[in-house]
């Protein structure tokens, strides 16, 4: 257990050192504030309008950005140590493969959680202070849910990055796979679902369609943040198919958490079973 | 527990490739063993099996009386030090941070790490990032890492590759110091020049098999390679050749005033007496077969054996 803490602390300090945390925090804060101001531009308005508009545009942005950041942060976590030769060395230390993997993951997870909470938290604070229409009391709930689900989304893609990092033996390959995973899960998947709907003229089994939506973490994240608001119908398109049946936030967050645990467990299992 | 390392009939296959075949090897406390062989001869694989990173396909591996992949492996690892062949550490951290990280993992006070950094001569560069280190400095850092926790057994995989002569000498000096404190060392190398003096025993691996195992003198006896004797003579005259002919030997002239001959090691003293009895001889030098020629000899034998297998 102590070893896990040592590895996590090192990973976290590395993140502070190479300014990952600073850069992502700033990026989140600036983008969130900008979106709060210009999110309603399409409706012909500038300036903070409504909390729901802000959250909907933030979620649309976060769903692209956070998976990318998480994948880029951790795709080389294991394969990188392998290439450096430090993995072989660490294996001669009193730490197990699983311990190393979990320690590194915890370090990365803490980094990502910190910058997500700080970045969007700062944004919420600025919006609350500057915009007269926004009261803190109204901001706290939606923003907490948004930040919480964003952190879970980030962890899900971190876990995916760890899985990629353990099944590859070259860094370049891992980077390619990470980009592919982003491309498929974030961009292609929804297009394919839409194609399915159009192609079958909507005669897809409702249950099947729900399952298809719920097995993609990005769609689950969208559901968490979009379905609570009226704007969701306009902004989420086909999500409204599912949104008609109310999903409890708890259940959706549970699915996101499972998306963290399952790939990570798979990575740990595969890593532990490695022969060399 | 008499031996620090005991390998019995150990083999390791990677698919169809047989990296190590039926290896028997023992290492006594405080002994320095040179593990020699070409690239791919099985040196690194052997080390990894001793470290417990790789499992043996068959045979028994025992380190300090324990199975390195068994239940006591965690405790055992605290007593082992290892310097891998190619390790580049964490470029963004300073030497001090790298060593402190490894010391925490090995449950050693960080002050010890700082002290070790001084000891390997990196005290002045402790705060600099590893990115800026030279090859020699990185190797020193690696060595400091291997020395964490005063290991009972130290495994050094090609510790002197790419080092300049002074850094190489420092590495060997360190090994001598450790031997004096009773640490057992296994050192793999294919840089043979100069390593001879620092080894108690040599094991030569070729194609995964142990070709030779013993002290350098034992290997010399076993190989029975000729001595090379050179004598400088003041003037050209036939008396030396006559004396040598009486012993059944023939010398060939290298230059006007220098002759050379090869002779079995057992006749060294006879020849010396004959040469010294001649007043014209001004200088004599005797070269025992070097580690390099022993290495070449045993590898050649291995190739012959391999051809017969095929």
Oligomer: heterodimer
Please count the helical segments of chain A: 13
Mean pLDDT of chain B: 85
Q: What distance separates the N and C termini of chain A?
A: 23 Å
Tell me the helix content of chain B.
Answer: 25-40%
The gyration radius over C-alpha positions of chain A equals 20 Å
Q: What's the main sheet of chain B like?
A: 6 strands, mixed
Q: Low-confidence runs of chain B (pLDDT<50, min 5 residues)?
A: none
Number of structural domains of chain A: 1
Task: Sketch the topology of chain B as an H/E string, one letter per element.
Answer: EEEHEHEHHHEHEEEHEHEEHEH
Briefly summarize what is shown.
The complex is a heterodimer of chains A (276) and B (310). Chain A is mainly α.
Overview of this protein structure:
The complex is a heterodimer of chains A (276) and B (310). With 276 residues, chain A is mostly helical. Chain A has one domain (2-272). Chain A is built from 13 helices and no strands. Chain A has helices spanning 2-17, 20-38, 51-74, 79-84, 86-90, 97-130, 136-167, 171-199, 206-214, 217-226, 232-236, 239-243, 249-272. Chain B is α/β, with parallel strands linked by helices and 310 residues long. Chain B has three domains: 1-79 and 151-221, P-loop containing nucleotide triphosphate hydrolases (Rossmann fold); 87-150, no CATH class; 226-287, ACT domain (Alpha-Beta Plaits, 2-Layer Sandwich), CATH 3.30.70.260. A six-stranded mixed beta sheet of chain B has the order 5-6-7-3-8-9, with helices on both faces. A four-stranded antiparallel beta sheet of chain B has the order 11-12-10-13, with helices on one face. In chain B, strand 11 (252-255) and strand 12 form a beta hairpin. In chain B, helix 3 (95-105) packs across helix 4, helix 4 packs across helix 5 and helix 7 (216-223) crosses helix 10. Chain B is globular, with a radius of gyration of 24 Å. The A-B interface holds A 2-3, 6-7, 10, 14, 17-18, 84-86, 88-95, 275-276 and B 48, 51-55, 74-75, 77-78, 80, 82, 84-90, 92-93, 101-102, 104-107, 145.
């Amino acid at each position: 257990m102590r070893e896990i803490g040592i590895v996590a602390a090192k990973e976290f300090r590395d993140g502070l050192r190479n300014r990952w945390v600073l850069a992502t925090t700033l990026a989140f804060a600036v983008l969130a504030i900008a979106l709060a101001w210009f999110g309603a531009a399409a409706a012909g308005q500038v300036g903070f309008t409504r909390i729901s508009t802000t959250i909907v545009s933030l979620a649309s942005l976060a769903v692209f950005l956070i998976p990318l950041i998480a994948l880029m942060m951790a795709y080389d976590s294991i394969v990188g140590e392998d290439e450096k030769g430090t993995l072989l060395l660490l294996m001669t230390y009193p730490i197990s493969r699983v311990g190393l993997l979990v320690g590194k993951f915890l370090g990365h997870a803490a980094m990502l959680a910190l910058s997500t909470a700080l970045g969007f938290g700062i944004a919420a604070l600025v919006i609350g202070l500057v915009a007269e229409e926004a009261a803190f009391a109204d901001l706290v709930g939606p923003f907490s849910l948004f930040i919480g689900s964003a952190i879970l989304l980030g962890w899900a893609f971190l876990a995916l990055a760890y899985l990629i990092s353990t099944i590859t033996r070259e860094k370049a390959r891992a980077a390619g796979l990470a980009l592919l995973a982003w491309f498929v899960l974030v961009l292609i998947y929804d297009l394919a679902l839409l194609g399915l709907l159009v192609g079958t003229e909507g005669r897809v089994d409702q249950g099947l369609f729900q399952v298809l939506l719920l097995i993609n973490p990005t769609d689950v994240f969208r559901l968490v943040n979009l379905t609570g608001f009226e704007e969701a119908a306009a902004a989420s398109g086909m999500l409204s198919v599912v949104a008609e049946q109310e999903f409890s936030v708890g259940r959706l967050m549970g699915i996101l958490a499972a998306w963290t645990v399952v790939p990570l467990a798979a990575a740990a299992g595969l890593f532990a079973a490695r022969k060399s | 527990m008499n031996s620090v390392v005991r390998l019995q009939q150990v083999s390791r296959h990677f698919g169809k490739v047989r990296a190590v075949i039926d290896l028997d090897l023992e290492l006594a406390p405080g002994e320095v063993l040179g593990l020699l062989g070409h690239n791919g001869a099985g040196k690194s694989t052997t080390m990894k099996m001793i470290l417990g990173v790789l499992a043996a396909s068959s045979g028994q591996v025992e380190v300090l009386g324990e199975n390195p992949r068994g239940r006591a492996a965690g405790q055992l690892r605290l007593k082992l030090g290892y310097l891998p062949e190619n390790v580049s550490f964490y470029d963004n951290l300073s030497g001090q941070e790298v060593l402190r990280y490894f010391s925490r993992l090995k449950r050693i006070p960080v002050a010890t790490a700082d002290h070790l950094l001084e000891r390997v001569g990196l005290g002045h560069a402790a705060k600099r990032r590893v990115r800026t280190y030279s090859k020699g400095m990185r190797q020193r850092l690696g060595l400091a890492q291997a020395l964490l926790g005063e290991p009972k057994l130290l495994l050094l995989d090609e510790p002197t590759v790419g080092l300049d002569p002074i850094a190489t000498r420092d590495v060997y000096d360190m090994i001598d110091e450790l031997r004096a404190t009773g640490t057992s060392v296994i050192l793999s190398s294919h840089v043979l020049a100069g390593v001879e003096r620092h080894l108690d025993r040599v094991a030569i691996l070729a194609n995964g098999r142990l070709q030779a195992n013993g002290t350098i003198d034992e290997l010399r006896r076993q190989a029975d390679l000729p001595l090379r004797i050179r004598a400088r003579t003041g003037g050209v005259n036939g008396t030396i050749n006559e004396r040598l002919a009486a012993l059944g030997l023939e010398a060939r002239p290298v230059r006007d005033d220098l002759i050379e001959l090869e002779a079995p090691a057992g006749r060294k003293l006879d020849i010396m007496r004959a040469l010294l009895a001649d007043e014209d001889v001004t200088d004599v030098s005797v070269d025992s077969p070097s580690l390099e020629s022993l290495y070449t000899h045993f590898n050649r034998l291995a190739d012959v054996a391999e051809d017969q297998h095929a």
